[in-house]
């Protein structure tokens, strides 16, 4: 419930500022929101691809990773 109240408070404050913002500022805000949305969608796709890769190929144990790191350093 607190999250909803916080979000409502933020939206109210943002809306009040948007009412007095210049058009170019509004355009920049919209562009930033769209970029953020696109990045979130890309992150979700990457995550899903990672899950599919793990299901198909499995994972490495921590011991295997440490051994590979030692080989790379040497």
Average pLDDT taken over every residue: 94
Summarize the main sheet: none
Strand content: under 5%
Unreliable stretches covering 5 or more consecutive residues: none
Characterise this structure.
The protein has three helices and no strands. It starts with a helix and ends with a helix. It is mostly helical. It has one domain (2-73). The model has no long low-confidence stretch (mean pLDDT 94).
Name some characteristics of this structure.
elongated, 74 residues, 0% strand, single chain, mainly alpha
Summarize the structure.
By secondary structure, the chain is mainly alpha-helical. 88% of the residues lie in helices and 0% in strands.
Outline the secondary-structure elements:
Layout: H1 2-19, H2 23-57, H3 62-73
């Amino acid at each position: 419930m607190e999250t909803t109240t916080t979000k409502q408070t933020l939206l109210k404050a943002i809306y009040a500022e948007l009412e007095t913002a210049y058009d170019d500022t509004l355009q920049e805000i919209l562009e930033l929101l769209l970029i953020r949305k696109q990045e979130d969608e890309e992150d979700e796709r990457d995550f899903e691809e990672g899950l599919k890769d793990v299901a198909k190929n499995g994972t490495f144990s921590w011991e295997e990773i440490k051994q590979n790191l030692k080989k790379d350093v040497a």
